[in-house]
Batch of 2 targets.
Target 1
Amino acid sequence: GAANAGIGGDRTEHVLWRLDHGLLDAMRKSRTRLVVLMIGTNNSNGGDHSAAEIAEGVTAITDRLSSGLGDAKV
């Protein structure tokens, strides 16, 4: 019953885009109850994002998942 929505090289902005463009709806339809998230490391290469910016992106993702999936554990 697990689904893998990970894509190599993903950045926080990519996950947010997918959540806003169908992924969150698909997760609701499949009644996702557990989300394991590993994101943010690809935002840190090359110094293009500060630690605070990366944390903001991760927080935005977890907030989106928590509010959109109700009782799911993130």
Target 2
Amino acid sequence: MLRGATVIAMRGEGIIPNADIVVQDNRIVAVGRRGEVDIPGGAEEIDVAGKTIAPGFVDTHAHMRPAWGLHQSQAWMFLANLAYGVTTTRDPQTGTTDVLTYSDRVTAGTTLGPRIYSTGPGVFSGEGIRSQQHASEVLKRYSEYYRTPPIKMYLAGNPQQRQWIITAAR
């Protein structure tokens, strides 16, 4: 439990002076004015008086690309993002599937970094989308293989092919 900071809240109260923040399993479960939040018995209390706590930033267009092919145990750009308050990133199209394994490492706690989301490789014209059914098959293959529900369509063909992909993505 964090006690005493000024909290910039995202809902309701705006700025909460002298706040209590309850963190459970690495997630904030309660925020409020000191004494107004239920504190679990045995919770460790950390005095953060004089500090300001803000929500983490989300970078929705992050191309964090450590050296490809050989994974680093710790990528400097992950630490830099955390230092500047970025707690979640999204790579809109990766040039390599390494971003997916780095995301797994962060989730598993073996690498420090923001949460990492990605579309995986983009769907390009090389897929040769031939029909609505084919577009659905290609997107299903991408989504299942890369474990990435969102996709990136990039130079994916003529207007009809792009429409098939958009329709299949719904």
